[in-house]
Amino acid sequence: MLTMYSTTWCGYCRRLKTQMDREGIEYSVVDIEQDTAAADFVMTVNGGNQTVPTLRFEDGTALTNPTIVQVKEKLAAQV
Question: Where is the Glutaredoxin domain (predicted)?
Answer without folding.
Answer: 3-57
